[in-house]
UniProtKB/TrEMBL annotation, chains A, B:
Database matches in SUPFAM superfamilies: Winged helix' DNA-binding domain
PANTHER family per the UniProt record, alphabetical: TRANSCRIPTIONAL REGULATOR, MARR FAMILY (PTHR33204), TRANSCRIPTIONAL REGULATORY PROTEIN (PTHR33204:SF39)
Organism expressing this protein natively: Rhizobium lusitanum
GO molecular function list: DNA binding
Stretches assigned to the HTH hxlR-type domain: 29-127
InterPro entries listed in its UniProt record: HTH_HxlR, WH-like_DNA-bd_sf, WH_DNA-bd_sf
Keyword Cell membrane recorded: no
Domain of life: Bacteria
Protein name: DNA-binding HxlR family transcriptional regulator
Keywords: DNA-binding, Transcription, Transcription regulation
Keyword Transcription carried by entry: yes
One of the Pfam families matching this protein, by short name: HxlR
Length: 138, 138
DNA sequence: CAGTATCCGTATAGATACTG
DNA sequence: CAGTATCTATACGGATACTG
């Protein structure tokens, strides 16, 4: 969890380099901070949508019909607060508001998309594992 | 978010094409499925730990002191159910149980680690954006 | 159009006590 | 040692109604 975290894929002899849980100090842990944000029910979906192009509030509502107005507002505000998306108000009559992804948002979306690809590619394996476990928990 | 979703990996330039929200069918959405699992408070932490080497239950408890016994058990079972980790019981006296990462778990950990690296590298930017927003919400 | 405000049910997680 | 069982607090998310 430290900055020196290395992806060690082969557990040969233990390099035993600590995951450094000593200063995992939640609330300050950037990883949990990120995960808990994108772990929200709608965050990833909105990031995916806005990665394509900017959208207005009402457009987003129509594109993600299952979301309630409340959750759309809240999720957008959270994403904006963290700097992933920007909100621009056009003083039209009636007012319109546009949301667009920021550079920071795009930089997040790059590794995030790789994770999403993994999910797409491997969800069958996961479902299989799950079915097997539910049948006979080892 | 459907099975036909194609996530474009271009790390450079024009971000992304279709997301295909038309038939996003939650409950079957592999992405939400994954995100909601690793979105749990302890999943990522345990995956990181077990990516290093196998650990026994008690060792995990000591390495992640904040976790309750209940949540440790539950999170480990969930991760096992999805096939990310394996559980092996040694009929010693008293019994000992070892948890280790599976191949599927390692394959997940690869893209996941990239996301974690992003979090480490950019959490200052996020914190800054957040502070600015809290001071004067645009 | 793009939000707020309010209410309420459910899911998630912690504390504590007990067990094969 | 490695868990279960129970109870409880809170966070998350949905529905509905109202507004600049």
């Amino acid at each position: 969890m430290s900055a020196s975290t290395v992806v060690n894929l082969r557990s040969v002899e233990p390099p035993l380099r600590d995951v450094d849980l000593s200063n995992l100090d939640f609330g300050n842990c950037p990883v949990r901070d990120l995960i808990s944000q994108i772990g929200g029910k709608w965050s990833v979906l909105l990031l995916e949508t806005l990665a394509k192009r900017p959208y207005r509030f009402g457009e987003l509502r129509r594109m993600v019909p299952d979301i309630s107005q409340r959750m759309l507002t809240q999720t957008l505000r959270d994403l904006q607060r963290d700097g992933y998306i920007a909100r621009e108000v056009f003083p039209t009559k009636p007012p319109s508001v546009e949301y667009r992804m920021t550079d920071l948002g795009y930089s997040l979306y790059d590794p995030l998309a790789q994770l999403l690809n993994w999910a797409e590619a491997n969800h069958e394996a996961v479902r299989a594992a799950r079915a097997k476990f539910d049948q006979s928990p080892d």
